[in-house]
Amino acid sequence: MDYMSRALDLAAKAAGGVSPRPPVGCVIVKDGQIVGEGWTTQSPGRHAEVAALEQAGEAARGATAYTTLEPCYHHGDTPPCTSALIAAGIRRVVPAIIDPNPQVDGKGIARLRDEGVELAEEVSAGHRQAAWELIEGFARLIRTGRPLVIAKYAMSLDGKIATRSGDSQWITSEEARERVHRQRARADAIMIGSGTAIADDPRLSARPGGELTPEPRPRLKIVVDTDGELPPSAKMFWEPGEVLMVYATRSEDAGPLIGLPDNVEKMELPPGYGGIDLVMLIDELGTRGIGTLIVEGGSRLLGSLFDLDLIDKVNAYIAPVIIGGEDAPTPVGASGHEKLSQAPRLERITTEQLGPDTLITGYIPGHTGHMPAGIG
Question: Among 37, 49, 70, 136, which one carries the catalytic annotation?
């Protein structure tokens, strides 16, 4: 059995629900049998290793622990997982990647070695990449204080997100939309502009199923509604989970923001490029422990974030359909770049076929750290 693959599946249960903690999975194996499993829970709950050790009990003595991230070394809201593993008598630990948190960053590995625990690197490149993608939002947050901001959009082969009349459902296939729901479920927050909210009236929820847990996902939905125009009947307001409605400082004669349910928090920010001060908003989300933020449009909001150099990663879904029309909208608006040499060219690009559609994923150069090395 592929024990690291099982640990990654367990870590996926935590993704999108435990930030600012990293989502981690752990499997404890003895004599070829799984005796304990665990994944990270929300603070002040247990870390993955501790949960797996509790399930294993005495069977943990002399066993091997497969974990998707280096066990923590420092005292946070819980004691170090390295201490728990040592005390339980774990003989061998197989971590997928080193923890990018400067408070750990190899110190957990060193502590285990000092105590005579065997460290083994028998993790494939694919598993290491999967482990990194699960915690890259945590890595961005711990290093910069800001979330990993992902621009997500679906467009036609000729770069349109709707027809000239605004018809946009559905450009991509069911396979692509299923992937979107899985990505939403692993994010801490999802954000759209008021234009998209009014035109499409989306729920911004993640379809239950698969590795998803029962808690509402994403845990925070954000709408940038500069002028406070979104009606209280908008579907996203009435879905389970918290909603953050962000609007600009209002004139004295602006109408009151009333009729919103109790789960909607209203936040007033100074006006800025794109309607509100987007830099201040991203910084505020970081202080709230949001590690991964998906921005799904519209064109003005995405373009403004690109112009302000606030996007870190791109998920572009491309459908083999030609829409045409000079007035048909494109996914990235605002001002854009005057010269092609100024436009960022994505790096670390991957492509994936989803039914008839293609998903292109890439990173803005210099925005995110690379995957940590193995344990060596």
Answer: 49
